[in-house]
Amino acid sequence: MSQPQRDPTPIQRLSVLPASQRVLERLRSAGTRFHANDNIADYLEDGELEAIEAEVAAKAQEMLRALVIDVDNDHNTRDTGRRLAKMFVRELFAGRYQHAPAITEFPNAERLNELMIVGPLRVRSACSHHLCPIMGRVWVGVLPDADSNLIGLSKYARLIDWIMSRPQIQEEAVSQIANLLEQRLKPDGIAVVMEADHYCMHWRGVKDDESKMINSVMRGRFLADPSLRKEFLSLRHRG
Ligand SMILES: Nc1nc2c(ncn2[C@@H]2O[C@H](COP(=O)(O)OP(=O)(O)OP(=O)(O)O)[C@@H](O)[C@H]2O)c(=O)[nH]1
């Protein structure tokens, strides 16, 4: 006599899904946002990033077929789907899938409370709308107080690269950078200015080669104190 079929357990049901669907289910059941510029590293399990890369490669190859490119016989595009997947998952959008870089935070032993500026730091990203490159520069102003943490200079570049290695819009990128640095440094004030070229304007669309977007976020003392803001903005223009 045949046994009655049991409904699959939630774990059995998840295990037959593609990796991207499994991650999606975890995000949904946790009620976590997963916009293009959000980090989802906490929701990935071992081996799932490799599986997602393989899924993206297959779908990218399908996109090329839909563009009526002979990927089976054209030696130049035969591996393009795989290259695109590797580029998106491992390089350009790695800031979505990898945990934040390890940063050693030092106490502010000398109780420094003078303005410090780091920059220009080179930034690279892709716009969320067309996935075209964004290439720019960032300046960060920090006003520590006695209870702030200090971090190594190179760590500003690492943290900012982690934020920028996701599809972004510049306004949100600047605010995410300010949030992260505020969280890590606990400063009295933080200022971030970004100036960037958007290739969705240079390369396509209006094809305007000259325009740049410049935006800033001022927090804490930089908001409250116009002379501090002025000092930061004028020092930023040096050199
Ligand atoms: N506010 C903002 N806009 C951006 C950014 N990066 C790209 N854009 C713009 O976002 C818009 C994309 O949305 P749509 O206007 O629907 O796109 P489109 O019809 O292809 O626009 P065109 O570029 O004018 O051809 C474009 O105007 C881009 O120039 C950014 O960081 N911030």
From TrEMBL:
Organism listed in the record: Thermomonas fusca
UniProt domain GTP cyclohydrolase I: residue ranges: 58-235
Pfam families linked: GTP_cyclohydroI
InterPro entries given in the database record: GTP-CH-I_C/QueF (IPR043133), GTP-CH-I_N (IPR043134), GTP_CycHdrlase_I (IPR001474), GTP_CycHdrlase_I_dom (IPR020602)
DNA damage is among the record's keywords: no
SUPFAM superfamilies (alphabetical): Tetrahydrobiopterin biosynthesis enzymes-like
Keywords attached to this entry: Hydrolase, One-carbon metabolism
GO cellular component terms, semicolon-separated: cytoplasm
EC number: 3.5.4.16
GO terms for biological process, alphabetical: one-carbon metabolic process; tetrahydrobiopterin biosynthetic process; tetrahydrofolate biosynthetic process
Chemical reaction(s) catalysed: GTP + H2O = 7,8-dihydroneopterin 3'-triphosphate + formate + H(+)
Molecular function as annotated in GO: GTP binding; GTP cyclohydrolase I activity; zinc ion binding
Broadest EC class assigned to this enzyme: hydrolase
Sequence similarity: Belongs to the GTP cyclohydrolase I family.
Pathway assigned to this chain's UniProt record: Cofactor biosynthesis; 7,8-dihydroneopterin triphosphate biosynthesis; 7,8-dihydroneopterin triphosphate from GTP: step 1/1
Name of this chain's protein: GTP cyclohydrolase I
